Amino acid sequence: MKEFIKNIIASMTLEEKASLCSGLDMFRLKGIARLGIPSILLSDGPHGLRKPVFDPDHLGIGQSIPSTCFPTASAMASSWDRNLLYEIGYALGEECLHEDVAVILGPGANIKRSPLCGRNFEYFSEDPYLTGELAASMIEGIQATGVGASLKHFAVNNQEYRRMTIDAIVDERTLREIYLAGFEMAVKQSRPRTVMCSYNKVNGVYASEHERLLTDILRKEWGYEGLVMTDWGACDDRVAGLKAGQDLEMPSSFGVNDAKIVKAVRDGTLSEAVLDEAVERVLELVYDAVENRLPDYCYEKRTHHVMARQAAAESMVLLKNDGILPLKKGMKIAVIGAFAIHPRYQGNGSSQVNPCRLEKAYCELCTYTSEITFARGYDLRSDVPDERLITEACNIARGAEVAIIFAGLPDSYETEGMDREHMRMPESHNELIRRVAEANPGTVVVLANGAPVEMPWLGNVKAVLEGYLGGEAAGGAAADLLFGMVNPSGKLAETFALQLDDYPSANYFPSGPRTVEYREGLYVGYRYFDTAKKAVLFPFGHGLSYTSFEYSDMEVSASQIKDDEELKVGVLVKNTGDVAGAEVIQLYVRDVESTIFRPEKELKGFDKVFLQPGEMTRVEFTLDRRSFAYYNVETADWHVESGDFEILIGSSSADIRARETIWVESTRPGVSVPDLRSTAGIYYNLPPGNLVVDDESFKAIYGETLPSNIVLEGEPYTINSTLGEVKETFFGRIFFELVHNSARNTLPEAEDGEMQKIMTEKMLEDLPLRNVLTFSEGKINEQMLEGLLLLINRKPAQGLVRLSTALLKIG
Ligand code: BGC
C-alpha cells in the first residue's frame, strides 16, 4: 500500500496535493478523477450514525438517515463495561458499513471539568483513566469492522462558551495527568484511524496548529500514525496547521486554503515534503476505506435496538433506594412527567441522531402492570411550575402505591454550542417532585440529563434512578430496572456535588473573554472532593444494586517492587444477595507521602463482573509504573517517588472495602521531585470552602506569566474576532444580521426548530470572522472580509475601497 500511495503522490500536481488537504463539502473528502482517487464520506458520531439525508453540503444539523441511537457517552461511561463499549462500537461500525461511511466522528475523550459544559453528555467522565479505557474499547469495536474512528476533540476542549477562540490556560502537569492522559491511552491502545483536533487554543496556540500537541506529543511521544483532521471550522492558519501536523481541514474551505498551500510551497515558506506527508496520510485513510468497503453489508436493526436497550439498562445508575425498588409486577403505579411520553434521550447538536425506534417509558411500564395512570406534571416548554398540572399529578399519585416521576433537564439545557448557567433542574420539575412526594411517600424519580444536577428534594423521595441520556431504548431500560427485570449495575463516572459552588472549577469556568484558566489544576472531580474532604451528594463510582457484594482476601503479589516491575493485585468478590447482579470493582492508588502535591487517590484499575447469587470470583489487576507515577515537568517525564503506596479496592471512591500498602522503589532516585510547598501551598492543603487559587499559586504551577484576559478599549478587531464581538460596532451589527438571516434561510426545518434556532444563534455569536469564508461557501471572500474589518476598525474610506474592489472582481 505504501508503495502504491507514494507512486500516486509522485504523479500529482502541486494543486492536486493541496486540494486533498481539505474537504469537498460538509462531510466528504475530495477525490481526484484523473488519478482514480475516490471520495470518501465521514459522519458524526459518537453514539449513533448521523449521516445527512439529502445534502451532505448543509450545515449538518438537519435531517439524517434513521439509525440506532445508543446511550450517549456520559451514560455509557456509567456502565464501566469495556465489552459493552466494544460491542456498541462494533454496531456503529456495522451501520457505517451499511451506509458506506468511512469514518465515524467519535468518541469524544474530553474531561468533564465542570458539570456545566453543554457537551458533557458527549464525554465519558471526570477521570482520564476511565475515559481512556472506554474510548479505547469503543474505537477497537468500531475499527474491528474496518470503519475508522475519530478520537475527538484533541485537546482541552471542556466548555462550549467561546469554544472557537477561547485559550485554555493549563499547567503542563495537569495537561499530562488529566487532559491528555485519556487521549494518550486511547491512541496507544486502539490506534484510532483519525484524531480530530479541537477548536480552542491551548496555552496560546490554536489546537489546529499546535505543533507540540499534534507532532511532538501525539506522533513522536505516543507513536500515532493516523490522520489528524480539524474540528469543523477549527482551521485558523492553514499553512501553520500543516507544518504543525494537521493533515486535513474540515469541512471545505472552497479552495481558499488550498490556494494558500500552493502559494506557500511556491514561495518556499512550506516544504513540499510536509505537504506530501499530509497527502500520504489522507490517501492512506482513503485507500484503507476502499479496502474495507462492504457496499452490500446489512445489519439486523432489531438486534441493534435490543443492544441499545441492554446498554441503557447497564448504564443507568441507581443512586438511592430506600427499599422501594424493585417494584412488583401488577403494582398500582402513577407515572408522572412529560418525559415519560416525550423522552429526553440524547443531546442537541452535531451528535443528534434520528432514532430507528423510540421507546416511551410510559408504554414500556404498561408491559409490567395494567394498574397504571399518567399525568404530564410539567409543561415541556416552560420552567415555571404549572399548578393545574401539579395538582393533577398529585391526585393520581395519591391513588397509587408508587409514584414514578420522569424529570431532569429539558433539551434547551444541554446542547452543543452552549454551557449551562446553573446546575438546577427547572423549577417546574423540582416543585413537581416536592409536591408529589408529599402526596405519596412512595415516590421514585427517574432522571434524564447528561451531567450532574442539584437535587434539593432528595431527602423526600424513596428512590432515584439516574437515567442519563440513555438513547432510543432508555424508556424500556428504565422499566426493566424499576421492575427488577434487570438488576442495576451502573456506577457514576463523575461526582455529583451538593451544589455548583462546591466544584473546584466553579470560579474558573467558563471565564473569558480571552482565556479560561484551569486554576484547580489536577483537582478535578473526586480528586478534589476526596483531597479537600468535602461532602458530596453522590461520590464518583457510586451505584446501587438489588443485591449485595462482599469483598475479601485481597492479595498483592509483592510488598515491595521497583517502579519498572509490575504488581498483581487480586480480590475475591462474592454476590451475597438473592438475585444475580454485576459489580464494578474499582482500584485506586494513594501515594501515602509525597514531595509534590498529589490527589488523595486516583483510579488505576476497574473490572465489572456478573455473579449469580452466592457465586464468587477472583478479580485481578496489574499495576505498572504509570499507576504510581506523577508527571515531572522538570524532566518532562513520568516519575515515581520512592515510598509507600496504598492500593485501595472499593465499590465506589467513597466505599473502600480492602487496602494494602506496598513500597515502590524508584529506578531513577536521582530525579529531583519538584517541591512547591512554599510557592503553591494551596495545592498541598486544599481549603474546605469554595476553591479560590490566587495568581501567585497558579503562576507557580503554570511556570510562566499568565496571559492577559482583558480586551483593551479600542483594541482592533481581527479575523479571529467573533461575530458576537464585532456586532458591537455599527458595521459589525449589519454584517451579523446578514450572516444571521442567511443562516436562518439555509438551515433545514427540523422538528425541534426552536432549539435549533437557539443553538444556531449561539454558535453564530461565537463564530470567528475567519469562518464566514467557509460557512458562506465561498460567497464571501478574503478581500471582502478585509474590507469589512477596515470598516469595523473605523477606517471607512479604506474599507469601502477594499470592499468595492472585491465586489467588482466577482462582477
Ligand atoms: C463538532 C464535532 C463534529 C463536527 C461535525 C463540530 O461542530 O464539534 O464534534 O464532529 O462538528 O459535525
Keywords:
six-stranded mixed beta sheet; alpha/beta; TIM Barrel; binds beta-D-glucopyranose; 5 domains; 32% helix; globular; 27 strands; 811 residues; Rossmann fold; five-stranded parallel beta sheet
What's a quick, concise take on this entry?
By secondary structure, this protein is of the alpha/beta class.
Largest sheet, in brief, is: 6 strands, mixed
CATH class of the largest domain: Alpha Beta
Count the domains.
5
What characteristic shape results from the CA principal axes? globular
Q: What's the gyration radius in Å? A: 27 Å
Instruction: Report the structural category.
Output: alpha/beta
Give the termini separation.
Answer: 46 Å
Query: At the third CATH level, what is the topology name of the largest domain?
Result: TIM Barrel
Total beta strand runs:
27
CATH architecture of the largest domain: Alpha-Beta Barrel
Attached small molecules: beta-D-glucopyranose
Mean pLDDT: 96
In terms of DSSP E residues, the strand content is: 15-25%
Question: Looking across the biggest beta sheet, what order are the strands in?
Answer: 10-16-15-14-11-13
Tell me roughly what share of residues is in helical segments: 25-40%
CATH homologous superfamily name of the largest domain? Glycoside hydrolase, family 3, N-terminal domain
| Low-pLDDT windows of residues | none
Count of alpha and pi helical runs? 25
